[in-house]
Amino acid sequence: MQQAFKTLQTAKGTLSQRGWFPATSGNMSVRIKCSSLENNQPIIAITSSGKDKSVHTSEDFLLVNLNGDLFYPTNLKPSAETLIHTSIYQLIPNCEAVFHVHTIYNNLISALYGDQGKVIFMKHEMLKAFNIWKEDASITIPIVENHANIPKLAEEIRRVIHPEVPGVLIKNHGIYVWGDSDFATKRHLEAFEFLFEYQINMFFLEKFNQT
Ligand SMILES: CSCCC(=O)C(=O)COP(=O)(O)O
Ligand SMILES: [Zn+2]
Which reactions does this protein catalyse (predicted)? Predict the structure, then answer.
């Protein structure tokens, strides 16, 4: 448990320094290795709800099972989006960590391509960060509508995610990213954000050249 909280704290510090958790947005979780805590059922460590992620406190993380039931410490409130995390762990084999951030670039991409329900990136060296090494490499990231109702949003996400692509965009909200370790999840998130920033800059460059 202590190791999981430490892992989350380190990643939270790194990503918050980049401004990827504005206005208390975002949340993170990792799977707990020693799951003997409650009848061997899978357990995740997840961020508390509504915290300033740039500040470290003793109340930043807690433990829930894959039904989202809180069991340690019981005085804290888990992320409002816990159901999205637990859905991803349930559906994606080998998922060990899930990070969610709201950035300007992932919001712009979701707004630009949301109506198509997906955005495709092709022939970028950065696709190797997703272990795609083919000459004609591409990745298709699903985009779902945002819903204030989290069970409805989680259901939308469950409908589109699959093991080949470790992320899903939520329109005008943010991105959920996962991997088979916290290291892989961070690498996937950085690669997605790189591609989004590239695409938005390319979009405006092309517009500028047309004028
Ligand atoms: C301004 S943040 C709105 C809620 C949200 O989308 C989010 O990612 C943070 O929710 P949490 O309960 O995990 O703090
Ligand atoms: Zn969010």
Answer: 5-(methylsulfanyl)-D-ribulose 1-phosphate = 5-methylsulfanyl-2,3-dioxopentyl phosphate + H2O
